[in-house]
Amino acid sequence: MKESVLDVLMYLFETYIGEDIEPEPDRNILRIELENAGFNNQVVSHALEWLDDLGEGDDDFDYAVLGNSTRIFNSREIRRLDVDCRGYIVYLEQIGILNATQRERVLDRIFALAERDIDIEDIKWVVLMVLFTQPGQEDAYARMEDLVFEEKIGSIH
After folding, report:
1. Is 88 left (phi over 0), alpha (psi -120 to 50) or beta?
2. 3-state DSSP call for residue 2?
3. Which of 152, 80, 154, 153 minimizes the C-alpha distance to 123?
4. pLDDT per residue as tens digits for the range 94-117
5. Structure pTM?
6. Residue 55 and residue 133 in contact, taking contact as beta carbons nearer than 8 Å
């Protein structure tokens, strides 16, 4: 049985991305499909709440940032994200995949996963989902998609 909220989110993303589905699919049908796929009801509920919160506006994350400013991670973030994870988020911002507002949205969504130890693969998927929901971010999404799937393709020999 699959037990992670991120597992549910990744399943939804991989299963339904690119398909012609209604913008807001019936939650009961979706819940049944996920449970039939082996996901726990409580984990499914948390994943659907996570998605609802992902769709919220960026007003809470709108920061005026100077070009030469540096993001300082707080103690909670340092405890939850190891140096590699924090470095990866900074890297994505430096190469222009994320802006400051998106970075904060990504951090919010990472911490909303709550029950997981976070690694770089998790961050890649969260970034991909955040960018997917934002209009005008097609180039950043495509670049991130390359980063997410590049290792999978490279490891198939």
Report:
1. alpha
2. strand
3. 80
4. 999 999 999 999 999 999 997 668
5. 0.84
6. yes
